[in-house]
Specification:
Blueprint lengths: L3 E5 L2 E5 L14 E7 L2 E7 L4 H4 L2 H16 L7 H7 L6 E3 L1 H16 L9 H6 L14 H8 L7 E6 L2 E6 L9 H18 L5 E5 L2 E5 L9 E5 L8 E6 L4 E6 L4 E4 L2 E4 L2 E2 L4 E2 L4 E8 L2 H14 L1 H11 L2 E7 L4 E5 L1 H4 L2 E4 L6
Antiparallel strand pairs: 1-2, 1-10, 3-4, 4-8, 5-7, 6-7, 8-9, 9-12, 10-11, 11-20, 12-17, 13-14, 15-16, 17-18, 18-19
Helix pairs in contact: 2-7, 4-8, 7-8, 8-9
Length: about 350
């Protein structure tokens, strides 16, 4: 589950997806908040013409409800579920929004050599992190191999013609899971709605994806803190000024369960078919959109520390990594990330 702390003015907004976020303001601000996609969203507007805010809360709620209905794997009647349920290989027409997400996913999937794979759903479900229930015993290799045969971006094709956007699978039972990018997409979608209404000073967060524009109600920058990787406390490891960018963090330290005495992460490596076991515990990405950041962070988490570093440097990504060591944690940031950093806490022992 993504973990970010948003410093909005003097207070802190905690985005854990578990507890309802709370924020303290030292200046008036318009806010809207609620639940979506199994997590919480919050929209804070620093300043806007009064007419821009009329009916805006209802529009935001409706937009997020529509996004969830489009992308959910938990709703059997969602657009994505209809595609997954289709037991054929003919191209299926999809919406422009879904095409945007899948196009981003396929591009990042290639760049990460398959580490970010939106067809990994059968493995996610096998390990109990999807709509299916948690297994009562560890999946065996035969089950893993069977699920892996249903996974691979090479089985998915996105195309476009004068009639619209089309998605095709060459395996009838290919299963697409867009949960790794849904929060980022929804965050950007709400931001576009705000700008259409003439709002240009805002902070939008859906789950662990955040995007900002302008400055806060006090005229100071919106600041976001990357959480220290622990499930026992909420402490900032580093604080950044997004400068109008999007940010997303993928971490292996909150969403897990224990089975047969072993802690299993929700992040599945498509190459092995198993939850990741390396020492990288948190990957944060800052990008021009929240969707872009949300796509890269998962792929980097799957790759592990060294491969994530190499990819970040090769692609010029703004990346911040936290790795578990025998003595605690170490941190690393790419040159592009340093431009956003306001402060960084000392590395702490576990």
């Amino acid at each position: 589950m993504n973990q970010l702390v948003v410093f909005a003015l003097s207070g802190a907004l905690l985005l854990t997806g578990c507890d309802k976020p709370q924020v303290q303001h030292d200046a008036p601000a318009w806010t809207a908040e609620g639940k979506t996609m199994g997590t919480f969203y919050r929209v804070t507007v620093a300043d806007a013409p009064p007419e821009a805010l009329v009916g805006l809360k209802q529009q935001i709620s409706q937009l997020l409800e529509e996004d969830n209905h489009e992308l959910s794997t938990y709703q059997s009647d969602s657009n994505l579920s209809h595609f997954n349920q289709y037991a054929g290989t003919d191209p299926q027409r999809i919406t422009t929004g879904m095409a945007e997400i899948i196009s981003t996913a396929l591009r990042i999937g290639v760049k990460t050599e398959g580490a970010m794979d939106i067809t990994v759903g059968p493995l996610v479900n096998l390990w109990g992190f999807g709509p299916d229930k948690q297994p009562i015993k560890m999946p065996d290799q035969q089950q893993i191999d069977a699920a892996r045969r249903l996974v691979g971006l090479r089985h998915l094709t996105l195309s476009e013609n004068v009639q619209g956007q089309w998605l095709q699978k060459d395996l009838p039972n290919l299963y697409v899971d867009l949960s790794t990018l849904g929060e980022g997409y929804a965050t950007d979608h709400v931001a576009r709605l705000l700008e259409k209404r003439g709002v240009n000073r805002y902070l939008v967060s859906v789950g662990g994806a955040v995007i900002t524009r302008g400055v806060s109600p006090t005229g100071r920058p919106w600041r976001v803190a990357i959480q220290r990787p622990t499930d026992k406390e909420d402490v900032a490891q580093a604080i950044v000024d997004l400068q109008g960018h999007g940010i997303s963090t993928s971490g292996s330290y909150r969403n897990y369960y224990e089975l047969d005495g072993k802690r299993l992460s929700h992040i599945i490596d498509p190459a092995t078919g198993r939850p990741i076991e390396h020492k990288l515990v948190s990957a944060t990405v800052i990008a021009t959109t929240a969707l872009e950041a949300d796509g890269w962070d998962t792929g980097l988490m799957v790759l592990g520390t060294q491969k994530a570093k190499d990819l970040a440097l090769r692609e010029g990504l703004a990346v911040y990594l936290i790795t578990k060591t025998a003595d605690g944690f170490t941190t690393w940031m790419s040159p592009q990330f340093k431009a956003f950093v306001i402060s960084q806490a000392q590395v702490s022992a576990s």
